[in-house]
Write a structure and sequence with these properties.
The structure is a homodimer. Chain A has helices at about 25-30, 45-55, 65-75, 90-100, 150-155, 170-185, 195-200, 200-210, 220-225, 230-240, 280-290, 300-310; strands at about 10-15, 20-25, 40, 60, 80-85, 105, 120-125, 130-135, 155-160, 185-190, 215-220, 245-250, 255-260, 265. With about 325 residues, chain A is α/β, with parallel strands linked by helices. The first copy, chain A, has a single domain, classed as Ribokinase (UDP-N-acetylmuramoyl-L-alanine:D-glutamate ligase, 3-Layer(aba) Sandwich). In chain A, strand 7 and strand 8 form a beta hairpin. In chain A, helix 3 (about 65-75) crosses helix 11, helix 9 packs across helix 10 (about 230-240) and helix 11 packs antiparallel against helix 12.
Chain lengths: ~325, ~325
């Protein structure tokens, strides 16, 4: 049932629909395979197969940055929808199941069955860092026609994942979705996803942030990369000019919510033992977006982000294991 | 390279090759879905789909009782091989990968691609009990021709999983494998797997135990079911007559190793927090089999079983997360 503002969803996510293949390895594996620790690298089928063969026992779990975020929103009790492309293979089924299981509306776009569902090979090192190698598969074939206009128009905030920017059709799908959202009076948010991804597509990201983005999510590296500066203060000044609101995550230092009026600092939640940082940024965004679409102040929304991030880094896997609503200080 | 006794493997497992789909739920889910807590139930495609849809977010991990056991043997540093049937779909790939990743030789039998790889939907309740619903898929089509005779003849102990008994071809494959092993001077072991499975096939199990089994693995319920008695002492007396060696697991009470000369009691290893009992029996068998094929005494082998079982119940999933050799008191 539509709400007073005509919306059916709090957050509509668009991203690469991926199943994560998670394995533990030590730093010598990272070296031997010439991986860049902590980053996301795109790999082709051959390289994905090679890495998978070299990998120890693995666990498969649904992932995908924006999908993790809308799952987190749903776990707080919010209403989420997701736009992303899977194949009709077994991993595609797993991906759809895990969204439906938490009550997220899934708009998968047109079928394209000759290409398999995308997967992300994640190597977790003993320091809890994750190194990602993504075989995009069908997920990167998202095109403007795959964007369900009704779903986007009915979401309070559109949330787009920068990882999708690696293909032109997907970039166009982003711009298309952003225009639909704005035409419906909705907010548009974007996460920069990865500093290497920003390097590859800096101009397009800059144009999108200036023209369409109301809320920008980034970590310090990504923000500095976007504005080609090593000075965090300078990057903050630039983002203030381009975007009404920016959420800059800072790992164990918490986060900074940058508005045109000032900065709201958010402390990190204490975590006994950090096991796997996969999904930390995705879940920070989940808490923050749930908060701002449900009447919370910026600092309360930031606190929910910190709470969600602390939950997801205390176990293996990119999605919450407990109902996040049970961790909401207001519940 | 063959060893002094001509063997290439310590343990050769034969069983249903399954990928586990693991999800947490409370007891009301068990009731609502009319499941029998703690048991393994065979389900058809429709029922499997229904349960999967009703299930919350899930994680996929390679499973299969005998496959968990040979993976455990490999984790202790032993040499394992596995005979079981998968399809050439994604779950089949996952299953093969996870065996290769721990160094187990996988002999998958002939391909039969129209039927998907089997899967086991496991519901873990807050009391750490697991309730299993198995869609056997292609795994149950194992037939005598799928048994790699060279592999069986080169394993010090053949280990067969009772779950496979639900199909006549597989029963015949068991008898065939047992005969090959005995002809090569090897030992034959069997796990009864589940008391309901024993109920369904009691006469066949009894005949196999009398004729072919040198080492029988069972828990108390399964052993009592095999001999149709509620008296554990009476069941022990019967198994002593039928089998040279029996390993009876007793949950938190540890285990009893029953020989013709007496009983060797094995204490359970202390566990801080039992999270998921999936794989407890499989891993007890792994430790015990690694022990007896590597020159350990019965009580030392039993201790390795208890150690492996305690590791696997302290986390979610049916296979060890640490190298079991690091927990071996002799290492």
């Amino acid at each position: 049932m539509p709400r007073a503002d005509g919306s059916r969803f709090d957050v509509v996510g668009i991203g690469n629909a991926l199943v994560d293949v998670i394995s533990h390895a030590d730093d010598s594996f990272i070296e031997r395979q010439a991986l860049t620790k902590g980053s996301m690298t795109l790999v082709d089928t051959d390289r994905a197969l090679h890495l998978y063969r070299a990998l120890g026992s693995a666990v498969e779990m649904s992932g995908g940055s924006a999908a993790n975020t809308v799952s987190g929103v749903a776990s707080f009790g919010g209403l989420g929808a997701y736009v992303g492309k899977v194949s009709s293979d077994e991993l595609g089924e797993v991906f759809g199941h895990d969204l439906h299981a938490v009550g997220v509306h899934f708009a998968p776009g047109a079928h394209l069955d000759e290409i398999p569902t995308g997967r992300c090979i994640i190597v977790v090192t003993p320091d809890a860092q994750r190194t990602m190698n993504t075989y995009l598969g069908v997920s990167s074939y998202l095109c403007p026609d795959d964007v369900d206009e009704a779903v986007v128009a009915e979401g309070r905030v559109l949330y787009m994942e920068g990882y999708l920017f690696d293909r032109d059709d997907a970039k166009e799908a982003f711009r298309h979705a952003a225009r639909i959202a704005h035409r419906a009076g909705r907010q548009v948010s974007l996460t920069l996803s990865d500093s290497f991804c920003v390097d590859r597509h800096r101009d397009d990201f800059r144009a999108l942030v200036e023209d369409e983005v109301d809320v920008l999510f980034a970590n310090e590296d990504e923000l500095c990369s976007l504005y080609e500066t090593e000075n965090f203060e300078a990057a903050v000044a630039s983002v203030r000019r381009d975007s009404a609101l920016a959420v800059v995550t800072r790992g164990p230092l918490g986060a900074a919510i940058v508005t045109r009026d000032g900065i709201v600092p958010i402390a990190a939640e204490p975590v006994d033992h950090v096991l796997d940082t996969t999904g930390a940024g995705d879940l920070f965004a989940a808490g923050f977006l749930y908060g701002i679409t449900n009447g919370r102040s910026l600092s309360e929304a930031g606190r929910l982000g910190a709470i969600a991030a602390s939950e997801v880094i205390s176990h293996v896997g990119p999605r919450p294991l407990v109902e996040l609503r049970s961790l909401d200080p207001r519940s």
